[in-house]
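Example: N-acetylglucosamine-6-sulfatase-like.
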Amino acid sequence: DNFADLKAKRTASFNIANDETKHWLLRLGEQPLSDDIIDKVDDIFRKRLRTLLTVDDMVGDIVSILEAKNLMDNTYVVFASDNGYHLGQFSMPLDKREPYEFDIRVPLMIRGPGIKKGVTLSYPTVNVDLLPTFLDWAGIAIPEYIDGISLKDIL
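Written out as structure tokens, the predicted fold is:
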């Protein structure tokens, strides 16, 4: 029953009819969405949040074990995602195939030695920057053929 009253975010692009200026994929399907479909979108939104409760428990368990073993001073915990997820934006009930702002802005959270708590950086980064960062933290030389840059000094 968690999040029973929450609804998918009603952004400016939520449930709008798309015209010929939008990608053909956005023009498929019912526009605007019916109330029944919007109810399903909201249900999917709540279910996705509920799934994250398990992830939250798992990360808490891992951090507790690391703390109990006195390993947190030498451990980085990284949380990232792949790309955004549409829930009603541009009248798409659910999808993740378009290159809009909410698709490219994904979470990247890092905790570890030298990382200041509660700080938000606006430095642009992408997933290919993770490997060089991990290698740099481990003291391993970053091969020239590796794409991306280390975020170690930025963080």
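Residues 50 and 56 are 10 Å apart (CA to CA).
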